[in-house]
């Protein structure tokens, strides 16, 4: 299994592959136990994120549009949509969610999280905030802008956000 994303959830590490299958690594016993959960259906999309959303395990599939920047002869990509799924533990399948309600998802390389919009003034629910974590050329702003924005799960619209210099990966600023 090649993991697309890893999360610590309910006392174990969970990894997801590009098809939506899950590996669970439980480190609580005398020796680690790894089990694989093969899901009923495969999930498409170019990137996968796992999110602990108030006790629910969510899978977010990100869809990208690729093109070649002829000035730099590099492939650049832009996010065009997201799909969100909740894991059904009984049926071992991902169930698609049409609405996040008051939840907001913040996606990034190995650091995705869920928040309640009502806890943050000016924040609207049913939104996905995303960072540019898929293309070295995009990150360096070569061949185009950074792919950073807000996706409205309700109507599928994307609002691009300005990009500023990134924090080093070992610094995580506090939200408070």
UniProtKB/TrEMBL annotation:
Taxonomy, superkingdom: Eukaryota
Species this chain originates from: Salvia splendens (Scarlet sage)
PANTHER family for this protein: OS06G0707300 PROTEIN (PTHR44259:SF114), OS07G0183000 PROTEIN-RELATED (PTHR44259)
KIB1-4 beta-propeller domain boundaries: 4-152
Protein name stated in the entry: KIB1-4 beta-propeller domain-containing protein
InterPro entries in the cross-refs: F-box_BR-signaling (IPR050942), KIB1-4_b-propeller (IPR005174)
Residue ranges of the TM segments: none
A Pfam family matched in the record: Beta-prop_KIB1-4
